[in-house]
Design brief:
The chain is built from six helices and 14 strands. It has about 400 residues and is an alpha+beta fold. It folds into three domains: about 180 residues, Efflux pump adaptor protein, beta barrel domain (Elongation Factor Tu (Ef-tu), domain 3, Beta Barrel); about 60 residues, RNA polymerase II/Efflux pump adaptor protein, barrel-sandwich hybrid domain (OB fold (Dihydrolipoamide Acetyltransferase, E2P)); about 120 residues. The chain has a six-stranded antiparallel barrel with strand order 1-10-13-12-11-14. The two termini are about 45 Å apart.
């Protein structure tokens, strides 16, 4: 009797346990059936290679490896002596050009005065000729006197023509006159000003500054080095704006769409989850863009499941005590329950068209950064999006795994 009651109690307990496990089991089944995950994912970002725009000798180095710098901070100083001399030489050439303009104005004024003198002489020569002609007709003066008057008229005409050509030559050297032109708004002065500006730019390029906030890496420059144009001196990794590149199998991407929410777990912080979303899906597999792509049409062919890079962007800047670093291994899980998003699109591209800049999730500083901002402007794409991506599901700030 006791064993029968015990068996019935155990049977009821098993039934209750099975019923109690149905609801969480159903939830777990839905969760895993709507998730695609991979551990072939890494933190990625843009690395800025810092190189000089002019050649020169390094006289100062202001940074070392792993130093944090802000936009405009000095990194390397080249010897500016040669370029300072060029600036002074260009300034002298500009002053000489202005003097040439003043000289041209003076030549124009002199040519105008000479033309007026020639015209006055021509008037007097005409009067003398007319008088001599009249007196010659009356037989009062000799033929020699009339010939002298005729020659004087011809000389006056030639002198006027010469003065007119000299004035045209002086005006041509000065350039066309216009009310909109200032005194020194002339090609010769503009060329000298351009050369001076170029010399000043070269002088400014001797001071190499940080183009954005970041961390100095791969420093390969020291005092005394003779550097050439374009020679890499160091690399600068941005503090903010890192993203995730997850290499999913092609069989996992059937229902993956742009904008779907994603959870990221970094191996360096195993108990913390970052929130993000799918920004875009690559147009080719990793093998297609490899240095030596596979030649499947030659030799023995073996089918291999390909992997496609998926770009994942964080919804919020990472906490100051859990910063991500380029190359860190992470695990990503994409929620594919919403399949209405586009395949060929980018959420960052859409927000760039709407706002004209990179979204604030890649630009906003951390609380400990004292308001510094990282300017990561990208070039405007050539064509608009083909289809507007679905907005990612709003999610709360990242929280520890054990709090979910």
């Amino acid at each position: 009797m006791t064993s029968t009651i015990l068996r019935r109690i155990l049977l009821v307990a098993v039934v209750i346990l099975i019923l109690a496990a149905v609801i969480p089991g159903k939830r777990y089944y839905r969760y895993f059936s709507n998730q695609v995950s991979t551990d072939d994912a890494y933190v990625d970002g843009r690395v800025g290679l810092i190189s000089p725009r002019v050649q020169g000798t390094v006289v100062k180095v202001f940074v070392e490896n792993n130093w944090q710098v802000k936009t405009g901070d000095r990194l390397v100083q080249l010897d500016p002596t040669d370029y300072d001399v060029r600036v002074r030489e260009s300034e002298a050439q500009l002053e000489r050009a202005r003097q040439n303009v003043d000289q041209s104005y003076a030549q124009v004024a002199a040519a105008q005065a000479g033309l007026k003198l020639a015209e006055s002489q021509l008037i007097q020569a005409r009067i003398d000729y007319d008088r001599a002609k009249s007196l010659k007709a009356q037989g009062v003066v000799s033929t020699e006197f009339f010939d002298q008057a005729t020659t004087g008229l011809r000389v006056a005409l030639a002198t006027q023509a010469l003065a007119r050509h000299q004035m045209l030559q002086a005006e041509a050297a000065l350039g066309p006159a216009s009310e909109d032109h200032e005194r020194y708004d002339r090609p010769i002065v503009q060329q000298a000003e351009a050369e001076l500006e170029a010399a000043k730019l070269d002088l400014s390029y001797t001071t190499i500054e940080a183009p954005f906030d970041g961390i100095v890496t791969r420093k390969a420059v020291h005092i005394g080095h003779r550097v050439e144009v374009g020679e890499p001196l160091l690399a600068l990794v941005p503090v903010l704006g890192l993203y995730i590149t997850a290499n999913y199998k092609e069989t996992q991407l059937t229902d993956v769409r742009v904008g779907q929410p994603t959870e990221i777990t970094a191996d360096i912080y195993p108990d913390y989850v970052y929130r993000g979303h799918v920004d875009s899906i690559s147009m080719g597999t990793g093998a297609a863009f490899a240095l030596l792509p596979p030649e499947n049409a030659t030799g023995n062919w073996v089918k291999v499941v390909q992997r496609v890079p998926v770009k994942i962007v964080l919804d919020h800047p990472e906490p100051s005590d859990k910063p991500l670093r380029m190359g860190l291994s992470v695990e990503t899980s994409i929620d594919i329950s919403n399949k209405r998003g586009p395949l060929l699109s980018s959420t960052l591209q859409r927000q760039f068209f709407e706002r004209g800049l990179i979204p604030e999730t890649l630009r906003a500083p951390r609380a400990a950064d004292n308001g510094s901002m990282l300017n990561l402007e990208s070039s405007r794409p050539l064509q608009q999006l083909q289809q507007a991506p679905a907005q990612p599901n709003p999610s709360a700030p990242a929280a520890p795994l054990n709090a979910r």
